[in-house]
């Protein structure tokens, strides 16, 4: 019996007791994780194809450990332009073991709705006293000045962040070096998961901290090492 299931943005053909390496998951080591986006299921006799997913089917797995893949060197060069760029990349991965493939009965339980309190009858309003013939107009409330937004930083100064990732972070409310420095690398990966390409976010908070503190020389030295594949 095997299934084709989507895990961490990728599709895998899996069977029971199989080891699979997927993009880094947020689940802790030793804990179980369930993937319910099953696209195809083969039990040896019948093949079921989802539209797009099979209702009630799921793949249950256990997280073995978190690790990083082998380093890949990416070298770019433009002839007669004097342009050379060398980057090193190690993908963050999670090793999991498939424990079981459930064909039916794996529907997610709907969250229980809180019972609405019965509406109480409003108490009768007291009769308003008769207004005097002439009333003074109440002064209009002063308009509050709109709060000034903090000036956004150029997040593209962080090694590994391009225009698309920068705009995605700004849309998520991370528009300054200080906010980026306080954001966990795993949370950053989750925010930019829709952006194409493999992105290693491990060093971004530390780079942003140096930028926020104005330590540009120290940041430049570190980025030169990252650019040379010494991540």
Overall pLDDT metric: 83
How are the strands ordered across the major sheet? Answer: 2-1-5-6
What is the CA-based Rg, rounded? 28 Å
Structural class: alpha+beta
Structure description:
This protein has 231 residues and is of the alpha+beta class. It has five helices and ten strands. The chain has helices spanning 163-171, 177-181, 185-191, 204-212, 216-227; strands at residues 2-7, 10-15, 19-23, 32-35, 38-42, 47-49, 58-68, 72-78, 83-89, 92-102. A four-stranded antiparallel β-sheet has the order 2-1-5-6, with no helix packed on it. A hairpin with a 2-residue loop joins strand 1 (2-7) and strand 2. The model has no long low-confidence stretch (mean pLDDT 83). The chain is flat. The longest helix has 12 residues, at 216-227.
Q: How are the SSEs placed, and which strands pair?
A:
Elements: E1 2-7, E2 10-15, E3 19-23, E4 32-35, E5 38-42, E6 47-49, E7 58-68, E8 72-78, E9 83-89, E10 92-102, H1 163-171, H2 177-181, H3 185-191, H4 204-212, H5 216-227
Antiparallel strand pairs: 1-2, 1-5, 3-10, 4-7, 5-6, 7-10, 8-9
Write out key terms for the chains shown.
231 residues, 5 helices, four-stranded antiparallel sheet, alpha+beta
